[in-house]
Amino acid sequence: MAEKLIGKDIAAPDLLAKITGRARYAEDFRVDGMVFCKMLLSPMPHARVRRIDASRALAMEGVIGILTADDVPQVEPHREPVLTNEPVFEGQPVLAVAAVDETTAADAIEKIRVDFEPLPFVLDPLDSLRPGGPDAHTHGNVRVDGEWRRLKWSAADFAEAGDERLPMGEATAEWSLGDVDRGFAEADVIVEETIVHQSLTHHPLEPRTSMAYWQNGKLYAFTSTQSTQRTRGALASALDMDPEDIVFVAEYCGGGFGSKISGSTLMQLPAIFSRKIGRPVMLRITRYDENYIGRARPGFQGWVRMGLRKDGRVTALDLYLVEEGGAYGSGDYGTAGNTAHLMYQPENMRFRAVSPYTNTPPKAAQRGPGGAQIVTMLEPIFDKAARELGMDRVEIRRLNAPGPESTFGPRETPLTSVFAREALERGAELFGWEEKKRLSGTRSGSKLTGVGIGLSPYTAGSRGYDGLMVIRPDGKLYVHQGIGNLGTHSIADTARPAAEVLGLNWDQVEIVWGDSSQGLPRSSVQAGSQTIHAHTRANHAAATDARRKIQEIAARTLGGTPESYTMDGGRVFRRGNPGQGMSFAQVARRAIALGGRYDGHEVPEGIHAETVPSVGRVAGQGLVGVARDDYGGEGAIYSWVAGFALVEVDAETGVVEVKEYTGVADCGTVVHPRSLGAQILGGSIQGMGMAMTQRWVFDPEWGVPFAKRLYTARPPGMLDVPLDLRWDALGIPDPQTPVGAKGIGEPPVGAGAAAITSAVADALGGRCLCRTPLTPDIILAELEGRRTFGRLETHVG
Amino acid sequence: MDEVDITRALERSVSRRTFIKGVIAVGATASSVGYLFRGGTPLLAMPAAQGTAERLLTLTVNGQLRRVDVLPHETLAMTLRYKLGLTGTKLGCDRAECGACTVLLDGVPHYGCSILTHQIRGRAITTIEGLQNPDTGALHPVQQAVLDEGGFQCAFCAPGFCMTMVGMLEENPDPTREEAAHALSGNLCRCGDYHKILNTAMRAAQLVRRV
Fold first, then answer.
1. Is the pLDDT confidence value at B24 over 80?
2. How far is A243 from A240, CA to CA, in rounded Å?
């Protein structure tokens, strides 16, 4: 019998390369004649380039060429260009120089004189909404229905709010369910808070480096990206090319966390530059560059009012979010509103939001976009209500969490499965909640202890992608993966169902990935925690196609019906008569001889147009399995993580120390336990960084950032996280997908962060600071009853 | 006008502020010059510019003598990656913040981005490429431990962590989990895979003691 693969710890096949130095990330590729480019970055948050004098730079020995905004595709003002003459954030690339080596390119940049005309800028979205406030773009400060607008609130809107509460003028997005006023009228307890969630940079450890060259009219592009097949599409679309004219290579990605979903805008630069100068161009992005152009999670300033009945049920939730849109806009607020509704299932809800553009680095999805922020902000406020009602915090969450019949959001979307209550229960058990909650608020010396909970949902799947695989004459199954390789081990783990459908052992399976010339199927972007769901389905479908073809070939060769054959260990044989059969190697050769649909020379109907040329690439290699995921399904696919933390807050220094953390997931069938645990704990740890240390700090006078490097906005290091980390998963399959697995990348971020914000509030006797990150100065200010910062200011540490 | 006065003036006058910012802007572009690389591939063979002269050095890398032209300000990480083809050493930050470029000098972990190649002649340099036994192909216990524990996610930090682990186990082959965490705290894993990395370190210690 072939080994059972789902649910086993099997190290990914690329791991050895990663620890011997053989794995090639984008910056590790070399080609003959390769030159380096460096970019000139805007020194101002908003400016217009009046004049560029590059004569001294171009005269330097070793300098090969210059690329300016005139050389790159022109885009609408709300879209990010590769290079620009009107930078809208400090650090935006204005031009690039290529030279024989990186230092010469950098020296050349120093010799270029650019005359910048400063333009009005804005860092804080509320400032842009003030009467007469500055606009981040010359065209306006918000976009509504695809049009620029200058949205200003009235002086009365601001005066009414005072200094402590969020002003709430006209919103650009709004929905409601039920009657929020009636909901508050029915409430026995009402809590109301103004909240501030910071913006923070993604900072994957590998910056977004790219290299490119042209050969015989084809573009060879090497880039750091989360996805592969879809990033090639994005690059082709940006350069107005046929994707088939790009050989796209992305074998390894040193982290993305949402900032490299379809690569990055700057991946176009080496391609364009190389076309201009006729040399391969390496754009090595430094950490310094990455901080500016590496994307950031948008911050929120918000206001929340929550009403609960005596029995603990949430009767009303009123939420207003002002999002910091950054230089090119953001839309995290939408998910935030939906997530708030999903978490607490309020009987009535109103949601309003506005997302003004700001002259800060561009925003992008960051692991759990919108959801992570709102969970982090709302959980301690929910705790406050629980405290007023005298209810246990696990119990009140269980009471309000969605069940199988629940829907969420303005369109009242159902869920494929939800076991949030079970995750809470298991988490409470594993953490020892009943015992540890007694420590709540206790003091030992200068240390205050608090315990907290974060219950965090996020999207976890998608449907309808293609699978493509080949059984070659060596008898092995080659699974072609168009998804990316960013550390989730998805390229291997999503192939396991294919092996199981075909009765193969794992050593009979090879993974083909990271190089479009190998032929990659239409795939999901490696984002939204969808991959394990989307591509176990797609590979299951393609393997089922291969299985049918194997049975047909066996029947044609050995007689009988296809149904009378089964397979195991790389052989297909007559049911009940294992002696009568053939090896997969023989099947592959027979498929090649038969041709047509068996070896990929005929393409089945229904697969995506982008998969068709890839089938052509593998045609004739062996028996081809190719199919679209037509399994269907109804409702949104969500996973959950219940996070529990125990923290100590030092009342003398304001330092928070996380002593214990437990995360339990509802994410369907467990495919790869150890990798799942790594996602749950790793995501939670990223959440801890969000809750405690990472942020942007700007000089409001000049609009330039101070926290420019890892050490000034530090992600958690090994000593910042507890040694006592625990995880578990419920392992209850999602009934609507053949393998039962749902994604897990994103839910843990909100769980980790909210467990901290909730625990810190608990340590402080239930006082919600209602802002992140919880740096020592903020905590001391709260403890000592002084405010060293404006309640609503963003971007202060 | 001193700095404080300038600030006050700026608060009063947008036009003045605009003017001064324009002045400041000229030649003050944001740039990351500093920890960079000079010296092309052999094919380019460009003479060094700006009066900086390369010097032919002999380095001991992974047990082999390697002769290489090195600039006075060239970092070891750059020499390894761009001149010796040893791209296993990663650049995560260029400036001693992340540890991705950690290599061993005479068995002791160092950040390759913060060492000038000129300073280390005569010392034994070990990179991730040098951990596997070149004759037998046997993995170093640290590498074996990574495979055993399924260590790392994106693994951009992995070479640095592995080198630090090797250095740590030289000094302390029987660390507690807490000691291991301290020893490895100079390396950053942005995926937050610390739990698995510590499991790996403890497993590696077991394997080292068994050897």
1. no
2. 9
Q: To the nearest whole angstrom, how far is the Cα of A217 from the nearest Cα of chain B?
A: 23
Tokens (6 digits) for A73: 């595709």
B151 with B124, same domain: the answer is no
* Residue B27: inside a domain: no
For residues A602-609, average pLDDT: 96
Could you tell me if B186 and B113 lie in one domain?
A: no
Q: What is the DSSP string of B101-136?
A: TEEEETTEEEEGGGSBGGGGTTSEEE-GGGSS-TTT
Q: Are residues B160 and B125 in the same domain?
A: no
Residues of B in contact with A91 (CB under 8 A): 30
- For the stretch A456-504, pLDDT in tens is 999 999 999 999 999 999 999 999 999 999 999 999 999 999 999 999 9
Distances (CA, A) of A553 to A237, A544, A558, A561, A590: 41, 14, 8, 10, 7
A20: nearest CB among B35, B132, B156: B132
pLDDT at A794: 59
- Mean per-residue pLDDT for A666-682? 98
Instruction: Point out the domain boundary residue: B76, B102, B130.
Output: B130
- Do B60 and B111 sit in the same domain of this protein? yes
Whether B5 contacts chain A with CB within 8 A: no
Q: How many angstroms separate the CA atoms of B143 and A729, rounded?
A: 28
Query: Is B108 in CB contact (< 8 Å) with chain A?
Result: no
CA distance A12 to chain B (A): 8
Which pairing describes strands B55-61 and B64-70: parallel, antiparallel, or unpaired? antiparallel
Residue A787 confidence (pLDDT)? 64
Residue B29 is assigned to a structural domain of this protein: no
A80: tokens are 């990010």
User: ipTM value of the model?
Assistant: 0.96
pLDDT at B13 over 70: no
Is position B2 within any domain? no
A contact residues 12-31, partner B, Cβ 8 Å cutoff: 12, 15-16, 18-25, 27-28, 30
Identify all chain B residues contacting A103, using CB atoms and an 8 Å cutoff. Answer: 33, 36-38, 71
> Using 50, 70 and 90 to split pLDDT, how confident is the model at A784?
confident
Question: Which two tokens mark A239?
Answer: 């350069």
**Domain-located, residue B112:** yes
Whether the pLDDT of residue B47 is over 70: the answer is no
User: Cβ of A106 and B31 within 8 Å?
Assistant: yes
Percent of chain A whose predicted confidence (pLDDT) is above 70: 99
B123 and B184 share one domain: no
Q: Which residues of A620-636 are buried (b: 16+ CB within 10 A; e: fewer)?
A: ebbbbbbbbbeeebeeb
Same domain, B92 and B65: yes
Tell me what the mean pLDDT of segment A393-419 comes to: 97
Domains identified in chain A and CATH numbers: 31-119 (3.90.1170.50), 462-628 (3.30.365.10)
Nearest to B191 among A44, A682, A701 (CB): A682
Q: How many domains does chain B have?
A: 2
Q: Are residues B116 and B59 in the same domain?
A: yes
CATH number, residue B156: 1.10.150.120
Chain B residues touching A120 at Cβ < 8 A: 14
> B80, B154, B161: which to substitute to probe chain A, counting the most A Cβ within 10 Å?
B154
Block residue for tokens 């592995």: B162
Residue in B with minimal Cα distance to A61: B49
Q: Which structural domain, as residue segments, surrounds residue B118?
A: 54-130
Distance from CA of B178 to the nearest CA of A (A): 7
Residue in chain B nearest A226 by alpha carbon: B154
What is residue A163's predicted lDDT score, i.e. its pLDDT?
A: 83
Q: Assess B124–A contact: CB distance below 8 Å, yes or no.
A: no
- In degrees rounded to 5, what are phi and psi of residue A265? -55, -40
What is the residue-averaged pLDDT of chain A? 96
Q: Choose among B30, B92, B132: nearest Cβ to A90.
A: B30
Q: pLDDT band at residue B31, thresholds of 50, 70 and 90?
A: very low
CATH number at residue B122: 3.10.20.30
Instruction: Write down which residue in B104, B130, B156 finishes a domain.
Output: B130
Average pLDDT over residues B76-94: 97
| CB of B132 less than 8 A from some CB of A | yes
Say which of A36, A41, A719 has its CB closest to residue B31: A41
CA pair distance A623, A594, nearest whole angstrom:
10
pLDDT of B2 > 70? The answer is no
A47 touches chain B (CB under 8 A): yes
**Do the beta carbons of residue A362 and residue A89 sit within 8 Å?**
yes
**Same domain membership, residue B199 and residue B150:** yes
